Amino acid sequence: MLDNSDSYVTEDGRTIGGVVMEMKNITLRFGGVVAIKDISFDIREGEIRAIIGPNGAGKSSMLNVISGFYNPQEGDVYYKGALRPPMKPYQVAQQGIARTFQNIALFEGMTVLDNIMTGRLNHMKAGLFAQAIWKGKAEAEEVANREVVEKIIDFLEIQSIRKTPVGRLPYGLKKRVELARALAAEPSILLLDEPMAGMNVEEKEDMSRFILDVNDEFGTTIALIEHDMGVVMDLSDRVVVMDYGKKIGDGTPDEVRSNQAVIDAYLGVSHD
Ligand SMILES: Nc1ncnc2c1ncn2[C@@H]1O[C@H](COP(=O)(O)OP(=O)(O)OP(=O)(O)O)[C@@H](O)[C@H]1O
């Protein structure tokens, strides 16, 4: 169960609830490489939580632990107040954690609409057998799924490309379609893997606005990893900073910005 007793309202009027996910003393090794060293942090319901750090800091590894791609050798993951046993990524997705990928993972030959519909798969209860013998139920489900998807298409302003094969879209729009597909799952936590990577300034501004609007409009909890410190500071409620697999900062953007260890890491000052 989620404990919302210490929820609060932000300056811009959003409600931040209790801790929805807690990472406790996570260590992840690849052979001799320690990608994550004894890191703990939490994610609160309704917040935008960033994990930042220079190249090789361990951000992707951490995102992959959250989404079940990697199971850490040490430490525990708590989700909605319960210890999460080691799980496969599809089981984590079924628990309501959706993600996007740094290297866009869409079906290039399929239309925007069909790509976004694949985000509804976890919500399709009528199996193939039911669809064969009980057409009505499957049809009702299809209509309900389409409603969710249409709302997202409107929201992300992609009506005009709904029938376009994804392979023909420019990079920035592909990223938006990927966001739409993840949102179609109506996730409890949305994980964004470097959502602004490879974008020009205008595309970055658009994506920032959509991330803020998604959080505001749907109340979606968002955890994102990002290499570039600048782009997440205006977006995030709280930021974890990683460097060489360790957590070197955790707090509000202002707290993190004035943290000397963080400044050193980004300037490339050497340390042990
Ligand atoms: N599958 C893997 N096998 C072996 N080593 C890995 C693997 N994945 C990551 N590592 C190592 O773990 C460390 C952390 O890598 P990770 O990709 O998590 O960092 P990152 O902060 O996401 O970096 P970037 O910003 O460059 O994507 C690095 O030293 C990396 O080489």
TrEMBL record:
The UniProt record lists the keyword Transit peptide: no
Keyword Transport assigned: yes
Signal sequence, start to end: none
GO molecular function: ATP binding; ATP hydrolysis activity
Highest taxon in the source lineage: Bacteria
Organism expressing this protein natively: Cognatishimia activa
UniProt entry keywords in alphabetical sequence: ATP-binding, Nucleotide-binding, Transport
Any single Pfam family the record assigns to this protein: BCA_ABC_TP_C
Coiled coil: none
Protein name from the UniProt record: ABC transporter ATP-binding protein
Xref: CDD domains: ABC_Mj1267_LivG_branched
GO cellular component annotations of the record: plasma membrane
Domain ABC transporter: 21-269
